[in-house]
Amino acid sequence: MNECCGIILFVLSLAIGVQSSNLQCYETEFPEGFLFSASSSAYQIEGAWNKDGRTDSIWDDLVHQRPYLVRDNATGDIADNSYYIYKRDIEILREIGLQVYRFSISWNRILPTGFPNKINYEGVAYYDNLINELLKYNIIPVVTIYHFDLPQRLQELGGWVNPYVVDWLGDYARVVFNLFGDRVKYWITVNEPQQICYYGYGDVMNAPALNYKGIAEYYCAKNVLLAHARAYHIYDEEFRDFQQGIIFIAISAEWYEPASSDKNDILAAYDSNMFTYGQYAHPIFSETGDFPQKMKDRIAERSVMQGFVRSRLPQLSEQEIDYIRGSSDVFGLNHYSTFYASRNQSVYTNYESPSFFDDMAAYTFQPPEWRLSPDAGVATVPWGFYKLLQFIKREYNNPPVFVTENGFGDNGGLKDNDRVTHLKGYLCALLKAINHGSDIIGYSVWSLLDSFEWMCGY
After folding, report:
1. Which of 46, 320, 395, 405 is catalytic?
2. What stretch of H or E contains 333?
């Protein structure tokens, strides 16, 4: 799909629905077979950070070497202690009545060197027991292969900006397919590539917190896409026929709405959508593949202006474009909130240069009248979720969507009325999208447990 068609579809999506904080639910039943789930990740809940052969991940290194980056100097050393009390976690799932549990495998708990030359069977036993206990109670495991916790030894070799990470993830994925694929039928290759690349390599909001703006996040993006595709093709070619599972990527996507009807604001919103989740969704789910054309053009233009001899966005070869395109059985969608986007002349000099935001050239904001979570950037805007789902349907030919994360952070306590309101609104928006043709197969709330929330601590 060319850029002109993409913008037309975006403008059509803007006309959908009414911008109200609440959507009326005229349908209250989900389709037969719809999957309800709760999510977690290894570093956030397991604890046992130095037990039974587990080695350090980039998050262990960050919280121990630079504790000042995390609120209250919190760590995941103990977290929810799920490594020892996973059976209680499963009891909670049963009490809630959920059919599915999404969790992740710790790469460094399974492969302490980061490579498949040494498998830690004490770590394997933990995941074997967890999976078997889930299946004992007919709870379906959805397993994330990579959720932010790269082995520290691999980070010392360059991590996600080293092209060999494509081989590293592929080798690790093959190990877990061999170990657990007889029982696991839903695999997520990589969780939230934007958070890995921009937050971790272009900023300090995720490990390894390199803060190499405008360059490292783009090298990372290419490598994450290729690594995801490698894991997908390994499963497709070596395991799918006899394991009979599905495999997909989970992309974080917020909705960006024009702040006004001005054409500059409309373009700012479109560009914001394309630069954020489109950077990863377009290469996989679009008919043409590759990075969004606007992104390629803008970064190339800015790079020349800044004195670089080539674009800071690495080029994907035709072979790589073909390899990545179509490499996901489902659109895994992590969604939390909506932002307004605007653009005027000052935006071109407002941001550090080079940087991702300078390249995107848009102001994004949330009005104070929206119900805002203590978790920065999360507001209750169900209509934005609905518009995002409809845009995915139009832009990417209505792929099956599994909402792999959605939630509302709060400061704790049992009277969490804001969270209840948030979840009701978003489930209503999801139902409306289904009734208007979106192919949505499941919904997973974040999170099962009150866990270590990265830089925000607990």
Report:
1. 405
2. strand 331-334
Q: Which amino acid, 261?
A: S
For the chain, which ranges sit under pLDDT 50?
18
Q: Per the structure block, which two tokens stand in for 250?
A: 């989970």
145 three-class SS: strand
Q: How far apart are CA 179 and CA 172, in angstroms?
A: 11
416/263 Cα distance (integer angstroms): 40
CA distance 354 to 370: 32
Handedness of CA 374, 406, 165, 326 (dihedral sign): negative
Residue 395 designated active-site: no
Residue 168 belongs to domain with CATH number: 3.20.20.80
Determine how many CB atoms are found less than 10 A away from the CB of residue 91.
Answer: 13
369 exposed, middle or buried (CB, 10 Å; 0-12, 13-18, 19+)?
exposed
User: Which residues span the domain enclosing 127?
Assistant: 3-456
What tokens appear for 152 in the block? Answer: 């520290």
Q: What percent of the chain has pLDDT over 90?
A: 90
Percent of the chain residues past pLDDT 70, beyond the cut: 94
Count how many domains the chain has.
1
β-partners of residue 342 are 363
Residue 34: how many other CB atoms lie within 10 Å: 15
Whole-model pTM: value is 0.96
What's the burial of 291, exposed, middle or buried (CB within 10 Å: 0-12/13-18/19+)? buried
- pLDDT reported for residue 16: 58
Task: Take residue 312 and report the two structure tokens written for it.
Answer: 């800071």
Looking at residue 65, its pLDDT comes to 99
pLDDT at position 5: 56
Contact 403, 142 (CB under 8 A): no
Tell me the two tokens of residue 271.
């560009």
Segments in 351-444 forming alpha helices (H): 356-360, 382-395, 417-435
